[in-house]
Amino acid sequence: MPSSRDLTRRGLLLGLAAVPLAAQSSEIASTDLFEAGSGGYHLYRIPGLIVTRRNTVITYAEARRNTGSDWDDIDLLVRRSTDGGRTFETPWLVPHIPGAVRNPVALERNIGQPDWRTYNNPIAISARNGRVHFLFCVEYMRVFYARSDDDGRTYSAPVEITAAIAKLRPHYLWTVVATGPGHGIELRHG
Which of 60, 170, 175, 181 can bridge 78 by disulfide, Cβ–Cβ 3.0-4.6 Å? Predict the structure, then answer.
């Protein structure tokens, strides 16, 4: 198994067992889904992968444009497979939030450029009812939610939900917020 450093250097290599073929074969196929230096990005980090109720594979990652740092100019990319991971659709960009501004901490510490925007820590949850929930952050200070009701084909416009966690601040003084990395699961009771 490659180290995380190797994965960062070469891009993200995700080994996918073809869902419908799992019972027929023990072979595991691998596909480079986000390759470092491709698509206009220096590297890809913070990957996640879910399988929906209809066996659609959805994978996502941060696409870091310039330096690869946590405060880089970062987009979020999503890919989808309807054949158990044999092939994937072209990556699509999670929509940018109108009026998003650079985190004052990054500006104060001279991290990156003032016109960069950091979209970070994506996380997806595949619900039993077929819905896909998608969370992400902007500039480590705002949290957004979108959902898909069509097996990840389309998503609602992102809605800010930062206020939902603000009530935790008196109990835990957070300076940045990160919803991920990773993926989520729906528990038995929701």
Answer: 60
Question: How many Cβ atoms sit within 10 Å of the Cβ of residue 165?
Answer: 13
Q: Contact at 8 Å (CB) between 165 and 176?
A: no
Question: pLDDT for 44-68, tens place per residue?
Answer: 999 999 999 999 999 999 999 999 9
Confidence (pTM): 0.81
Q: Is the dihedral of CA 117, 132, 88, 85 positive or negative?
A: positive
Give the alpha-carbon dihedral of 27, 28, 31, 36, to 10 degrees.
Answer: -140
Q: Cβ distance 107 to 117 under 8 Å? A: no
Q: What are phi and psi of 126, to 5 degrees?
A: -95, 115
Spatial CA neighbour of 8 closest among 57, 58, 69: 69
Element housing 165 (H / E): helix 163-166
- Strands 119-126 and 184-185 turn out to be parallel
